[in-house]
Write a structure and sequence with these properties.
1 helix; alpha+beta; 13 strands; 10-stranded antiparallel beta barrel; Lipocalin
């Protein structure tokens, strides 16, 4: 068991290292392509000035996210007065509810996406050392993107987390911590928009130690618009973050993964 955990720790470490390198490369690429896109924007704007589609707005008042995959890993500091500490990963995930909503605005080569999430999740590890974790996750997420090729966008933005962890380890008193994080993000978006069907795929990576050490999200959705200004959307979302929170020299470290299907409705203008 110990050898298996050591093996997976090495794999996770290598993946996180590769993600940091990838995000650094993406950041440099974003600067280059944004400059190139800004240069070409004048030509595209001039060519489209006689037939600009104008502003396009989509509002998603209800997006229900059902995290089928829940993984939480915590490392508690020693309790005041000494003793305690430790933690580890849950074995049985628990989902209490989640809700999302958002909107996007686009015009020409520019696009803005904004969404918010609330999720109440948790999990347990019944065998020794016995562990129980409950988490409320609230975040707001916003990105701005520039179209660089057909339906492909380079994006940059921020994700704000407000978290509430309640952890029960063995017979120690409940440990509660409410970290708040501001994570800079860079990424890619692919947005194909037609009269009856839209396809959206996004990747965001960031944190960079500013807020979280690592913050990664991936999502894909298909929107079907059977009538004017109204549609149904369905897809899948993945979110992973790793961070730490220090209060009075006592550091609480946490890693969390959520992934599952997304369904909802949209209004298109």
């Amino acid at each position: 068991m110990a050898d298996s955990e050591y093996f997976w720790d090495i794999i996770r470490s290598e993946i996180l290292s590769m993600m940091k390198r990838f995000c650094s490369i993406m950041f440099a690429l974003a600067l280059i392509l944004t400059a190139a896109g800004a240069t070409s924007a004048q030509t595209q704007t001039s060519a489209a000035s006689g037939g600009n589609d104008g502003w396009k707005v989509t509002i998603y008042p209800v997006l229900v996210w059902v995290p089928l995959g829940i993984d939480i890993n915590v490392d508690l500091p020693p309790i005041e007065g000494g003793g305690g500490g430790g933690g580890g990963s849950i074995i049985d995930g628990r989902f209490d509810g989640a809700f999302m909503g958002g909107f996007n605005v686009s015009k020409g080569i520019w696009r803005i996406d904004v969404d918010g999430l609330w999720a109440a999740v948790g999990g347990d590890r019944p065998q020794n050392p016995k562990l129980s974790v409950d988490v409320d996750v609230i975040y707001g997420h916003g990105t701005a993107g520039i179209k660089v090729y057909k339906d492909l966008y380079i994006t940059g933005g921020v994700r704000r987390y407000a978290l509430n962890y309640v952890v029960k380890l063995l017979d120690y008193p409940d440990f509660e911590r409410k970290p708040g994080l501001w994570d800079p993000l860079i990424g890619l978006g692919w947005h194909h928009v037609a009269d009856k069907l839209e396809v959206h795929a996004t990747f965001d990576g960031g944190g960079f130690g500013v807020g979280a050490d690592v913050d990664v999200s991936v999502s894909g959705r298909v929107d079907w618009k059977p009538i004017n200004h109204f549609g149904l959307t369905a897809g899948y979302g993945y979110l992973y973050f790793k961070a730490s929170d220090t209060v009075r020299e006592r550091t609480f470290t946490f890693k969390q993964t959520l992934h599952g299907p997304i369904i909802g409705i949209g209004f298109y203008f």
